[in-house]
Design brief:
The chain is an alpha/beta fold and 334 residues long. The protein contains eleven helices and 15 strands. It has an eight-stranded parallel β-sheet. Strands 2-3-4-5-6-1-15 form a seven-stranded mixed β-sheet.
């Protein structure tokens, strides 16, 4: 493994890793029993701004790393620090906006692959923000979609997204003017919103549907009502500890006497080699909170391809320096 330290830009990442690559990488890494997540650190401040840190390691592959980011109403920036897990060397610093978008969407692809009905070819998308386009692409990568229904509460944003989706993907795209219209009879439903309050009720969902709940990753946010759980026969999350810590929907359901025994991780499902969807399933649910291993999977692929192809900006490796203090400096100057 090269000792050179490199900086990878957003443009480098998207040139090196496609969404299809990311789905495959996440599936391999999530199934690695020796790989592990570092619990998420999260703090909010002022007017809804937040600080985040996600870490993980895959010792068998020789890598560990952390993604850190700040999210504010005026902007957000994320960076990934990649280390050699065997000697502690810093290998790469990676601009992580696109990396985060790839891994979030790829994780929805995995949740859909392992839980959604096999023949599902239609999707309802609720939310048209930054993550929406790749959410559709990820589901389409694991289930061949023919039709997508799109809803968000702001008409101009919704219409602009519908037009863009029609340009980028060879699908029938329907603009839905209500939530009910969008999700009615849809076999796959993806929620990717910034909603503070739950808006999706169980009665809106078709029997046999699969629900990806992607947007509510802060304790004060929620997307679906508790009655959804009453119909769910398969509950899978990307990472159980992060869900226990920050999902208000899951904490309300499983945080008391009921316990978390019904909740499975996507890694456990993949290792089993069997669909998490039981026969006669009414609803299946996948909750993605974001976990370090999904970031690491994409970062490893980006780093190794960059290293092998000579891509990235070399930066000086860190060298140790001893701390000084005023009296010490004064003596040195005599």
């Amino acid at each position: 493994m090269s000792n050179g330290l490199i900086w990878l830009t957003e443009q480098d990442v998207v040139s090196l890793v496609t969404l299809d690559d990311a789905i495959a990488a996440l599936e391999r890494t999530a199934a690695d029993e020796g790989a592990f997540n570092v619990p998420k650190a999260l703090a909010g401040y002022e007017d809804g701004s937040s600080m985040h840190s996600l870490g993980s390691a895959a010792p068998a592959l020789g890598y560990a790393g952390f993604k850190t980011w700040l999210n504010t109403k005026r902007g957000a920036t994320a960076v990934y620090s990649m280390f050699d897990s065997r000697n502690g060397a810093l290998l790469a610093m990676i601009e992580a906006g696109a990396l985060g978008q790839l891994r979030t969407s790829a994780m929805s692809g995995l949740g859909t692959r392992w839980q959604a009905p096999e023949g599902a070819d239609e999707m309802a998308l609720v939310g048209t923000g930054f993550q929406a386009m790749t959410q559709v692409a990820a589901v389409n990568a694991v289930r061949s979609l023919k039709r997508v229904r799109v809803f968000s509460p702001t008409p101009d944003k919704r219409q602009a997204f519908v037009a863009k989706l029609r340009e980028r993907m060879d699908l029938e795209v329907i603009e839905s003017t209500s939530l009910e219209q969008a999700v009615a009879d849809a076999p796959i439903v993806t929620l990717v919103t910034r909603a503070k309050d739950a808006f999706l009720s169980a009665s809106m969902l078709a029997r046999g549907a699969h629900l990806n709940a992607v947007g509510a990753i802060l304790p004060q946010n929620a997307e679906f009502h508790q009655d959804v759980f009453e119909r769910v026969h398969s509950v899978v999350v990307d990472d159980i500890p992060n869900t226990q810590k920050a999902s208000s929907e899951f904490i309300q359901r499983f945080g008391g006497e009921r316990g978390w025994g019904e909740v499975r991780s996507i890694g456990e499902v993949i290792r089993s080699g069997k669909s998490a969807r039981p026969a006669g399933c009414d609803l299946s649910l996948f909750k993605s909170m974001g976990m370090g291993l999904s970031d690491l999977a994409v970062a490893i692929m980006a780093y190794e391809r960059a290293r092998d192809r000579g891509i990235g900006r070399p930066i000086p490796a860190a060298t140790r320096a001893a701390p000084t203090w005023q009296a010490d400096r004064a003596r040195a100057g005599r």
